[in-house]
Amino acid sequence: MAAAEASDGRARGSGAGPTRGVYMISIAAELAGMHPQTLRIYETRGLISPKRSPKNTRLYSQEDVARLQRIQELTTELGLNLAGVERVTALERELGRTRRRADRLERELERTREAASAEIERVRRTYRHELVRYEAPGSALVPVRRRRA
């Protein structure tokens, strides 16, 4: 194995998160359950974009491996071709963006609702003492005598 590769196929010094390229192509292919050439084809089609080492070796992240496993699921279990996989992944990305936007809008709506409620309550307290309850004529506690003209 290369000096920059650990005994398990990961690049050395890979303590970072799921997006850091750490797996060589053979290890990533094995983890995803496919042939290394298939990974190259997927890269050519734009389905996967591995990082590159300083020596231009493909380095796949944990996120890349999960994406490869998803592609494998779509092609083998659901019978999609690569064009279908491209469309499904594009729709999944769009759905993710839409969900994040909806979550952000819901939080904004809740903040606006709280601010509006606080403002309504503030206005109610201000006018509570200035308002006089309306009572229909003839319903007053003290009857008013009408003058005869």
Provide an overview of this structure:
The protein has 149 residues and is mostly helical. It folds into two domains: 1-79, Multidrug-efflux Transporter Regulator, Chain: A, Domain 2 (Orthogonal Bundle); 81-128. Helices cover 54% and strands 3% of the residues. The protein is built from four helices and two strands; from the N terminus they run ααββαα. A two-stranded antiparallel ribbon has the order 1-2. β1 (51-52) and β2 form a beta hairpin. α1 (25-32) packs across α3. The N and C termini lie far apart (116 Å). Residues 1-14 have low confidence and may be disordered.
Task: Give the topology.
Elements (H helix, E strand, L loop, with lengths): L24 H8 L3 H10 L5 E2 L5 E2 L2 H16 L4 H46 L22
Antiparallel strand pairs: 1-2
Helix pairs in contact: 1-3
Task: Characterize this entry briefly.
This protein is mainly alpha-helical and 149 residues long. It has helices at residues 25-32, 36-45, 62-77, 82-127, and strands spanning 51-52, 58-59.
